[in-house]
Amino acid sequence: MSYTLEGKTGTWEIVVGLEVHAQVISHSKLFSGASASYGGEPNTHVSLVDAGFPGMLPVLNHECVAQAIRTGLGLRARINLESRFDRKNYFYADLPTGYQISQFTHPIVGEGTVEIELGDGTVRHIGITRLHMEQDAGKSMHDQDPTRSFIDLNRAGVALMEIVSEPDIRSPEEAGAYLRKLRQILRYLGTCDGNMEEGSMRADVNVSVRKAGEPFRTRCEIKNVNSIRYVMHAIEVEATRQIEVWEDGGEVDQETRLFDPSRNETRSLRSKEDAHDYRYFPDPDLLPLVVEQAWVDELERGLPELPDDKRDRFIKQYGIPRYDASVLVAEQAIADYYEEVAKGRDARLAANWVTGDLFGALNRTGRGIQDSPISAQALGGMLDLMADKTINGKIAKEVFEDMLETGDSAADIVERKGLKQVTDTGAIDAAVADVLARNADKVEEYRGGKDRLFGFFVGQVMKAMAGKANPAIVNEALKKVL
Amino acid sequence: MSLTELTIADAAAGLRARKFSAVELVRAHTDAIAALNPRLNAYITTTSDAALTAAAHADETLAKGEARPLTGIPLGIKDLFCTNGVRTTAASNILKNFVPPYESTVTANLLRDGAVFVGKTNLDEFAMGSANITSAFGPVENPWKRNGDDAALVPGGSSGGSAAAVAAGLAMGATGTDTGGSIRQPAAYCGIVGLKPTYGRCSRFGTIAYASSLDQAGPMARSVRDCAIMLQSMAGFDARDSTSVNCDVPDYSAAIGRSLKGLKVGIPAEYRAEGLSAEIEAAWQQGIAWLKAAGCEIVDVSLPHTKYGLATYYIVAPAECSSNLARYDGLRFGERVEGPTLDAMYEATRRAGFGPEVRRRIMMGTYVLSAGYYDAYYLKAQKVRSLIRRDFTESFQKVDVLLTPTAPTPAFAQGEKTDDPVQMYLNDIFTVPASMAGMPAMSVPVGLGATGLPLGLQLIGRPFDEETLLAAGSALESAAGFTHRPAIRAEGAK
Amino acid sequence: MSLDPATVRRIARLARIGIDESDLPALQGELNGILGWVEQLNEVDVEGVTPMVGTGHAALRTRDDVVTDGNCRDAVLSNAPDAVGPFYTVPKVVE
């Protein structure tokens, strides 16, 4: 069932396209040798090139080009062997040269596609229009002085990739899934850390609404939304606003808006008479960028396995359900962890432990896989004890909790707590005899046809043996006697 | 001979032979500046004290026998080259107190080779002009006079201060920049040699930009050889300029006096344009005859799109300048006029900071790039520019070098041609096409016109073939035997 | 094409150059003069011609991704008309 909104005049569909600004992971800036790292004292990660001093000239960072190409390949997109840098001219306090160097007419990456999976298992493909490189702006601070804004250029000139989607997104959920998938791909590739809180990934959201079967109506752009949750909220709020405008007989103006999460509303950012005219033209300080196919091929060979490929391989190689595979490939580190646990072991059991108990424990303690208190080797060691029947599944839960707390190995815990599974048939037979003797009435009932009491006997025997009995032997012994 | 009359080549030899010291040589120039600059206004900033200190240092270097090619040679630096710790204004109010904390590559190269800078020369504001009358620091007076007439003439522009300083003996040579003729046209007006190298030959790093795809630094001096010596230092690859071309710098001086036998010299028909004065036409014919006598073969060629060069230039250059000059916003450097809002501050700052011609070009450029007009103006102009370059490329399949006049007239008086911007722009009609195509070109003085003013001829060469320009230029120079000096000059002042 | 006063005002606004109403007629005349003169390019047939980008003498070079610059705040702020502490300043911007 597709996502729609009900208005006074009927049912509306929403149309969303996203422009994601992803900060490129690099040591230095796109066109200067100043540090691109986050933080730093104000105006220290700034060269005279970044500050736009007279006579300063841009020189392109090779690695940023490589990162853009890797990302393009990760988005299964066309790499344009010739691309160009244009100037986007506008005045703003945090834009030192009065223009942003961007790729307007000839981006380095053309059409691609991203596969997303929704909660109900639906798979959709969202088209990528283009990816281009551009410079980030500096930062204005408005709350430091009553009459002035303060300018810090540390971010000015840091490389960004602008990744533009087709207007293929039809619901807030799809937008969220798209952003999560994009972030996952960027993180796998190591081209952007995807950290929306620090602003290294942010989205401009283009929203319009229409009745089923209509062509596109006017869209509004919601600028600089910095969390996936906010993107999803903003779409809903803005679509609702636009429906009201249309239904009240008005016209939606094509404009830039801001999402205010505290008030859960969007509002117009610029008045129309101040409409921008960016006067794009090719930057005469830079020549066309020409890359060799051989280099693109080399970069492609160096790419890691991408999440979709890894998921498909997990399904095939480990025989685990698609849902589990998707969860396990969410992060490269989780996938690596899982593969280490699964190696040479029962891969399905490994998937259950990782996605179940381990994720539960990590969630509870607010940790990521990188600082999991139980290493992949340790968890594997526990599975080994289950495999060789040293412990059973029930005891394993207890051992796992102990591992979480103490960091001890499963073997040590089993040893320390004496949890080794009892396989001694003599001891089990004795316990069986004892349980049956104490429950003669139930034995009668069982023999009278009440089959489901078998489980009761198993439970009683296990209890009598403090859970350490091998359940298979207990079953065997009970069947024999009963 | 007075020290201010020497060529760089002779001065360098004299210094090595200990005929005079670097301090004496530099002091002769700083004294001349003190005497004549109040009138000529060729320098915006003089650095005499620093120059004399540098000269003393140069003498020590000479004494140790470690002299570099330009050790102890006093040069003027166009005030468009950023000089570390020395005010750099671009002749604009907006930069009137700007002190760069860095050195341009071209001036750093000259300093590396021992040059002594005596000051920053005047220019049209941000190099926009052909008469050096748009400078916020006042116009430059051409040291030449018409016969029997004391009217102040323009030195040409935009490198008018450099041209006047070199002509009058206030520097042995000077740096210029050329966007549409800003080295060659003032060189012609002031009777000196000026060379605009191939685009990409000299680094643009640290040189204040006017139109990035056209700007090119070059030498201005009193002889072709001196230009070769200066270019040797100024030229070279610079990783900090993405348009700098990484090819070897040949020994330019070796080209001086090289045989021209068999050299094919093209004479483009289209340069016989309307408005070409009879005296310049005559000088051109004389130049052709001299080159023929030197063994050159004269070939008629056609550059059909030449006549569109200027109109193309006045779209492309303003477009680029409108963007390049956006950084002068009163925020990080330069003068600022406060305003209640950010935009009010910008508008007040830029109105007060820029002169009328700069404002006009910024607005012109803003318009031609604006939505709906980009294709009709800028894109069209860049296409015509391709045709202009193609004309040159095709001609250079037939000939080795082109010979044309540098400017349609000799120097004119201050106050003439100022009513209509377009009339002023026409001064660059012969120099602009080579700029649009990125070709190297040089102006050489070949004689005096009817009113006693110097006339220049222009040689245009293949990309990175400055050597042929120098070879042919030195032949013209020898044949012309141009030894005339202007009315106002250091020696004459004594 | 001919510029009307409103267009001249709009261009000045885009270029952030303050103009007085009294500047308009002269500016309009000058700009129209230049525009009228460059109209001559309409004569040129540019069908199929690629616009010039760069001068064709070199390809774009790239630099290694190494931090070689920055950490020069004194130089960065050396010419600032109104620096406060480590910052540049502008009249307060209200968003």
TrEMBL record, chain B:
The keyword Protein biosynthesis applies. Coiled coil: none annotated. It comes from the Bacteria. GO terms for cellular component: glutamyl-tRNA(Gln) amidotransferase complex. SUPFAM superfamilies: Amidase signature (AS) enzymes (SSF75304). It catalyses: L-glutamyl-tRNA(Gln) + L-glutamine + ATP + H2O = L-glutaminyl-tRNA(Gln) + L-glutamate + ADP + phosphate + H(+). One of its GO terms (biological process) is translation. The keyword Protein biosynthesis applies. The active site is at K78 (charge relay system), S158 (charge relay system), S182 (acyl-ester intermediate). Allows the formation of correctly charged Gln-tRNA(Gln) through the transamidation of misacylated Glu-tRNA(Gln) in organisms which lack glutaminyl-tRNA synthetase. The reaction takes place in the presence of glutamine and ATP through an activated gamma-phospho-Glu-tRNA(Gln). PANTHER family: GLUTAMYL-TRNA(GLN) AMIDOTRANSFERASE SUBUNIT A, TRANSAMIDASE. Heterotrimer of A, B and C subunits. HAMAP family: GatA. Belongs to the amidase family. GatA subfamily. This is Glutamyl-tRNA(Gln) amidotransferase subunit A.
Automatic annotation (TrEMBL), chain C:
InterPro entries: Asp/Glu-ADT_sf_sub_c (IPR036113), GatC (IPR003837). Pfam families: GatC (PF02686). Keywords: ATP-binding, Ligase, Nucleotide-binding, Protein biosynthesis, Transferase. It catalyses: L-glutamyl-tRNA(Gln) + L-glutamine + ATP + H2O = L-glutaminyl-tRNA(Gln) + L-glutamate + ADP + phosphate + H(+); L-aspartyl-tRNA(Asn) + L-glutamine + ATP + H2O = L-asparaginyl-tRNA(Asn) + L-glutamate + ADP + phosphate + 2 H(+). One of its GO terms (molecular function) is asparaginyl-tRNA synthase (glutamine-hydrolyzing) activity. GO terms for biological process: glutaminyl-tRNAGln biosynthesis via transamidation; regulation of translational fidelity; translation. Gene3D superfamilies: Glu-tRNAGln amidotransferase C subunit, N-terminal domain. Its EC number is 6.3.5.-. NCBIfam families: gatC (TIGR00135). Belongs to the GatC family. Heterotrimer of A, B and C subunits. Allows the formation of correctly charged Asn-tRNA(Asn) or Gln-tRNA(Gln) through the transamidation of misacylated Asp-tRNA(Asn) or Glu-tRNA(Gln) in organisms which lack either or both of asparaginyl-tRNA or glutaminyl-tRNA synthetases. The reaction takes place in the presence of glutamine and ATP through an activated phospho-Asp-tRNA(Asn) or phospho-Glu-tRNA(Gln). This is Aspartyl/glutamyl-tRNA(Asn/Gln) amidotransferase subunit C. It comes from Komagataeibacter diospyri. The gene is gatC.
